[in-house]
Write a structure and sequence with these properties.
The chain is an alpha+beta fold. The chain has six helices and four strands, in the order ααααβαβββα. It binds FE2/S2 (inorganic) cluster.
Length: about 150
């Protein structure tokens, strides 16, 4: 559901680009800069104003990896799956975290490859913060302190 601020933002975009649909990509980047992703309702409203089909706009924007159409997760956990970490617990850590956070929609869990701290395995990132010698408890504790 769009609010007044969203409507005003779309109006300002349309005005900025003179209601010219050939600037759709630029408008997409402006939306991305303000919202962090492309909310469906916002794009639908933009399409109405530009008099184009949503499918046309979606297919044009989704061609670029930069445009995400899902709200980003608040907390991103990235676990190193490089050789040192893999052979020293990262696989079990990933499984434990996937199980623990399976019902939490604000957390995403991904893997990466060698975060350059191999001697302090397993290594994880929570958003931009590195966690050395990570384990399930240290990650849960760090997430809880970030929330507060
Ligand atoms: S293998 Fe994990 S930090 Fe290098």
């Amino acid at each position: 559901m769009l609010n007044q601020k969203d409507i005003e933002f779309i109006d300002s975009l349309v005005k900025k680009y003179n209601n010219d649909k050939t600037y759709l990509i630029e408008m997409g980047f402006d939306i991305l800069e303000n919202y962090g992703y492309i909310p469906k309702e916002l794009l639908e409203e933009l399409c109405k104003k530009l008099n184009i089909f949503y499918s046309e706009a979606y297919s044009n924007l989704s061609f670029f990896n930069e445009f995400q159409f899902e709200k980003p997760k608040e907390i991103k956990i990235s676990i190193c799956n490089g050789i040192s970490c893999y052979f020293n617990g990262s696989k079990e850590l990933i499984n434990d975290l996937m199980d623990y956070f399976k019902n939490n929609e604000n957390i995403s869990i991904n893997t990466g490859y060698c975060f350059k701290c191999c001697a302090q395995y397993p290594v994880a990132y929570i958003n931009d913060e590195i966690i050395l010698n990570a384990n399930k408890e240290s990650i849960i504790q760090k997430i809880n302190t970030q929330k507060n």
